[in-house]
Design goal:
The complex is a heterotetramer, with 2 copies of chain A (about 375 residues) and 2 copies of chain B (about 200 residues). Chain A is mainly beta. Chain A has one helix at about 1-15, and strands at about 30, 40-45, 45-50, 55-65, 70-75, 80-85, 95-105, 110-115, 130, 135-140, 145-150, 155-160, 170, 175-180, 185-190, 195-200, 220, 225, 230-240, 240-245, 250, 270-275, 280-285, 290-295, 310-315, 320-325, 330-335, 345-350, 350-355, 360-365, 375. Chain B is built from 3 helices and 9 strands, in the order αααβββββββββ. The chains are: A mainly beta (about 375), B alpha+beta (about 200).
């Protein structure tokens, strides 16, 4: 790894003096520039595309394994983590499971830490978490469920925590939350060395058969936002040693004369459902929430792409606008960039779209496709 | 956008869908209660794992011969097992092994049967009865892309794995590279006699 | 490898007694059956599909590497060879180049022989050849051109033969032919141990700038058929120590009143060109030749898929029929199965088609896609 | 055939096209004679290799500074380097590095420039002159599928590699996994002064 990185750097340095008018014959290698809050990672194929959505440009790519679900940026270290599973002969032969770190500046792999357990090969940003800037947590299903904790300061896997019935790793403080099949949110606190100190569970607030929450969650700052398949929105926070769940509110309220922010009376939307690979996103700073919506189907259509994106004002919990996809286009993922004035990012069937979040107006298309949209910051 | 660009973008989307989430669906023709009742027999020793129908080889061998279940000696079946509409596939999501050199009971040569599977209940229109179907993944080869089939009913989030379509069910195989999925008839869906 | 094969066999044996009515819960693994002359290999994605085109069924698959061009059956051994290039981390890290043998019965890898030179990663059946049932020849470009000879009886790579300016490996007797950039066909004779004994060149019969032959060639029994981009058909054979080239005949003759086998006068077809991934095929036993044809474009469109397949009677060298693709469908590859009454196989944009070769009538569609169609026998 | 099946079949076709033949085309705006004349300088030491423009780092450093070629100090260019129609791409086939974090002269971060390249001649409409363009592959990363571009002129069979679009031009890189392709301006196409 290191050797390779040096080679890349060597090429870059030797080309610094290339003349602007006539190009060197061999070409040279660029570096990736300085990421901003408007850079995201898009996972498409076996590649993570690092995209500046403000500029509308792909700035670089990271080569992932076929079993890598997502990336996990560690911006203060200038690194991006992912995990990969590699068979000696692509699909058979000896297996190596590793946590890989990429140097952002050179977009090159710079380190690997062997993982003791086969991680889940699921296309999901909740599968790998950065906990307190110090640990990376990885969810496993073998089919027993557990979380591997890797110390990314000392570069060693410190252990595996059994988490029966609970999935994903949503970091908060020196620990992480997980939604569980019994209708609760579990929180596990880690020690300085990454071992389990304690675990707590919220009261059961959903019924997995009647209306489970998505296993995908988004951060609220104080905790995590969970949304049920029927469109009930909850926030899970810590309170002393316990996990607290806010009262749920619905994305599809009954028609009761309520007017939305534009003064228009709500139409009843019973036939619309939330769904998609990343079905919702939330910005605490901007007070906005966006959801991917499709019409019809049962609860099990929760991964189905949408024909609209709905925007909610989080002060009033009312819907501000409905953004309709054009023609046959569908949308499978939404993301809001950080900050007070976020950009709304949509992964559509024809590529990435950047919209103004407050108006919904489209700013640009970016020629990159994939599934997961992750903010770098 | 050129044709080629469209092709490439399609490729990327497909790759993602095929490799980072083996899509599995569950037959929804059963309520939770009846489902649990029917699967209880498989779940001995599963501990805190909720409702995950782990069918290990060892357990399987303790099950009484299946032709004696309810005394049924044969199943009347109609339809094309290479079509997604085939009755056994109500809970299928993935690639049909029948299009890849296998059958609904045998993995294609050179692949490996996972020792853990999802079980659903499908209605056989030819005899009007419901049957328990075990969807076992065959693994260890590159994906056989010939006959994709997704019939989504009762899909749930991954913390409820027995009903999650995002999990790669290659447990027990030496490789978790997904190849295709079987659809085994393992009993009557309307019977409690599988013990 | 062996261990894995035994496991597979173990599973098979333990399932032999499975009841026909009620299935075993774990399932079992099948074997592939007895290949016939109407089995072919289709390379699609990183998979070789073994297809019985008579029955219309995929019988099994072989996992290939992303750099594997083709397979090479060795039916008397019950094996199929291919080569693969594997990086430790899919696209980076340590590289291993290996010749892989698959056991046909179990469709499983059973052996590997390390290759000393990086083989060409080109999607082409001429890249790997079985020579005299004893050697596998592999074409390399690094960018120097050479052929690696592997002894598949003693399972060892015996050496590399420099072949500057010549590409592909077309086996004939104890040696192989190659088309060369100077307009000739080269023949290299091998010793019993796989070393070069002698080489010969045909007279130059084409000009690489004016009208080169395809690097893809098909066997004629006595030699190999080469076709130029403008549609001139040649046969290269051995004569004593030398390589002889037959007089070329054209697929697009001038209109001169000639009638085809149906008594219809030839129309002038100047605007039609031969092209495709496998642009032509020939059956000496049936006296048939088939070509993939498209309309318009320059010589460089020789890899472009066609809208028609033309069938030639090789006794008269006249065109017997034109097979038109339906709608937007295109065809990229043609193959004839062995024997007196061959099937015509077409790889179209919507999948594999099986036709009766003498009438052109479609027999069936088979639900498999890919590029290269190779006969197993 | 279901949507999913079509997607899968497209995937298979795409995979093949992308991985087993990196497609390269040559600018055809030059006859063989002029082509050889212009490239002769690069071919020292190539021996029996016919017409393959191997541009090794060592050789490149012996070439006189290119801004002095014909005394031209700058190139007037117009158009979008992320579009296949851009003038430099007359001989391009592959994926544009300009869409992958690179430029026409620099490989994207973390990829490696091949030390061997194909050279074509393209007409720059902005100044009405022809230029020699070197198409260098960037390798060692998974394929960047964003901007595919194939402008086929003068493609030849693989035994004539300098004009073959089927060859993976990753020679000199530590990995032959194809990422994208540069388009470097290295001289005037209508000059003989590159020595």
């Amino acid at each position: 790894m290191l050797q390779r990185k040096l080679l890349v750097l060597g090429l870059m340095l030797s080309c610094g003096a290339a003349n602007a008018q006539w190009d060197r014959i061999v070409g040279s290698v660029t570096s990736i520039g300085e990421p901003t809050e408007r850079w995201v990672s898009i996972r498409g194929g076996n590649t993570a595309y690092l995209v500046d959505v403000e500029e509308g440009e792909v700035k670089g790519t990271l080569p992932l394994s076929r079993f890598s679900p997502a990336v996990r940026p560690h911006m203060t270290q200038g690194k991006i983590y992912t995990y990969g599973s590699y068979y000696k002969r692509d699909v058979y032969g000896d297996l190596e499971n590793v946590l890989i770190s990429f140097d952002i500046e050179t977009a090159s792999p710079v380190g690997e830490i062997p993982l003791p357990v086969l991680p889940a090969g699921i296309g999901h940003s909740g599968m790998i978490a950065l906990i307190d800037e110090r640990f990376v947590g990885i969810w496993n299903i073998t089919p027993a469920m557990s979380v591997t904790i890797v110390d990314v300061i000392n570069n060693v896997a410190v252990g595996e925590i059994a988490t029966p019935g609970c999935a994903a790793v949503y970091p908060l403080g020196r620990g992480f939350m997980m939604p569980c099949g019994d209708g609760t949110i579990q929180y596990i606190t880690l020690s300085d060395t990454g071992t389990e100190v304690s675990r707590a569970r919220s009261p059961a607030f959903f019924d997995v058969m009647a209306d489970p929450v998505f296993d995908y969650a988004v951060p609220t700052g104080a905790g995590w936002m969970f949304v049920s398949l029927e469109g009930l929105v909850y926030e899970a926070t810590l309170n002393g040693g316990g996990v607290e769940i806010s009262e749920g509110w619905t994305l599809n309220p009954e028609t009761n004369g309520t007017k939305d922010v534009n003064g228009v009376e709500f139409a009843r939307d019973d036939s619309w459902r939330i769904g998609g690979r990343q079905a919702f996103t939330y910005s605490a700073e901007a007070g906005l929430m966006m959801t991917v919506m499709h019409e019809g189907g049962g609860q099990e259509t929760f991964e189905k792409p949408g024909k609209e994106v709905w925007a909610f004002n989080m002060t009033t919990k009312n819907r501000g606008y409905r953004l309709k996809m054009e023609g046959d286009q569908t949308v499978s993922a939404v993301q809001l960039t950080p900050g007070n004035d976020p950009l709304l990012l949509l992964m559509t069937s024809t590529g990435l779209q950047v919209h103004d979040a407050s108006t919904g107006r489209k700013i640009r298309d970016i020629n990159v496709s994939g599934n997961l949209i992750q903010n770098l910051f | 956008m050129s044709d080629r660009e469209q092709l490439i973008q399609q490729l990327l989307k497909d790759l993602d869908a095929r490799t980072t989430g083996a899509i599995r669906f569950l037959a929804g023709h059963t309520s939770r209660r009846s489902f649990l009742g029917k699967l209880g027999v498989f779940m001995a020793g599963m501990g805190a794992f909720p409702v995950l129908p782990v069918l290990r080889e060892a357990n399987a061998q303790n099950v009484t011969p299946r032709q004696q279940v309810n005394g049924v000696a044969d199943i009347v079946e109609m339809g094309d097992p290479q079509q997604c509409e085939y009755w056994r596939y109500c809970g299928m999501s993935g690639t049909l092994c029948t299009c890849c050199g296998g059958s609904n009971t045998q993995c294609p040569a050179g692949s490996q049967t996972a020792t853990v599977a999802w079980v659903g209940t499908c209605h056989n229109p030819a005899d009007g009865r419901d049957y328990l179907i075990s969807y076992n993944d065959c693994c260890g080869k590159s994906s056989c892309g010939s006959c994709g089939c997704s019939r989504s009913e009762g899909d749930k989030p991954v913390y409820f794995p027995s009903k999650s379509n995002s999990i790669l069910w290659c447990f027990g195989s030496t490789s978790h590279a997904y190849h295709c999925t079987l659809a085994l008839v393992i009993g009557h869906g309307d019977s409690n006699s599988m013990r």
